[in-house]
Amino acid sequence: NIQASYRDHIYQAQLMNLKGVVRWNGQDFETPSSAAKAVAVDWKSVNGWDFWHFKDPETGKLEKIGKLRKS
What we know:
single chain, alpha+beta
């Protein structure tokens, strides 16, 4: 499970795999950035790997999902 905060709202989604498929609002997006643009419709570009966060099970802190690509 992942989440993003945008305009005082928290958006929940699922990171389906480490290639970056994100399921949000019942729709699958091929990249975290395309899912982020669906949330932040007025943004021309966004790095979805920085936009979405996950709760690190070891620390309990929210981390950017981009951290998952490095492990």
